[in-house]
Amino acid sequence: MRFRALVEQFLKFGVVGAVAFVIDYGILMLLSQVVGWDPLPSSVVSFVVSLLFNYVASMHFVFERRDDLSRRRELVIFVALSVIGLGINSAVIWAGTAALGDGAVAVTATKLVATVVVAVWNFVSRKRWLEAR
Question: Has residue 46 got a pLDDT over 70?
Answer without folding.
Answer: yes
